[in-house]
Design a protein that fits this description.
With 143 residues, the chain is mostly helical. Helices cover 76% and strands 4% of the residues.
C-alpha cells in the first residue's frame, strides 16, 4: 500500500512541477523524487508517533506498563445522563426569575452582584433566588 501511495504522490508532484530545464536522467530524477517523498513520509510518521506518545504519557493511565481505559463504565455513564435529564427538567420547572438568576450565577459564572445588576433586582433577591433554585434542584435530583 505504501508503494502505491508513493507512486501516486510522485505522479501528483510531477503533474504540478514546472521545470526550468529538461531532465537529463529521467530514472535518477524519479528515484530521487521517490526517495525524498518517502523520507518526508517517514519523518511525518516519526513526528506523529512522538506526538501521540507524548499525549499518551500525559493523558493516559498505566498499570504495570499497560494502558488502562479511563472511560466510565456504561452503567455510570447512563446514570449520569439520566441525572442530567432530571436536572434540566428541574431547571425548567423553576419560576422565570429564579431560573434566570440561577442560569446567570451558576451556569454563566456571574457574581451575585453582577446577576442582581443584570436582572435589575437587589443582591438579597438574587441570594433568595439561588437558594430556592438549589433547594428545588436537590429535591428533584438529589444525590
Amino acid at each position: 500500500m505504501a508503494a502505491e501511495d508513493l507512486v501516486q504522490d510522485i505522479y501528483l508532484k510531477l503533474a504540478s512541477l514546472e521545470l526550468e530545464a529538461p531532465v537529463q536522467n529521467n530514472a535518477a530524477f524519479l528515484y530521487r523524487m521517490g526517495s525524498n517523498l518517502m523520507l518526508d513520509r517517514l519523518r511525518q510518521q516519526h513526528r506523529s508517533a512522538a506526538r501521540d506518545g507524548d499525549w499518551r504519557q500525559i493523558n493516559a493511565s498505566f498499570v504495570e506498563d499497560e494502558e488502562v481505559a479511563e472511560d466510565r463504565p456504561a452503567d455510570e455513564a447512563l446514570a449520569a445522563r439520566q441525572r442530567l435529564v432530571l436536572l434540566l427538567q428541574a431547571i425548567e420547572e423553576l419560576p422565570a426569575a429564579t431560573r434566570q438568576a440561577f442560569r446567570l450565577h451558576k451556569l454563566e459564572g456571574l457574581s451575585q452582584a453582577q446577576t442582581a445588576e443584570a436582572l435589575g433586582v437587589s443582591r438579597s433577591s438574587v441570594e433568595k433566588y439561588i437558594s430556592a433554585a438549589l433547594k428545588h434542584l436537590l429535591s428533584r435530583v438529589g444525590r
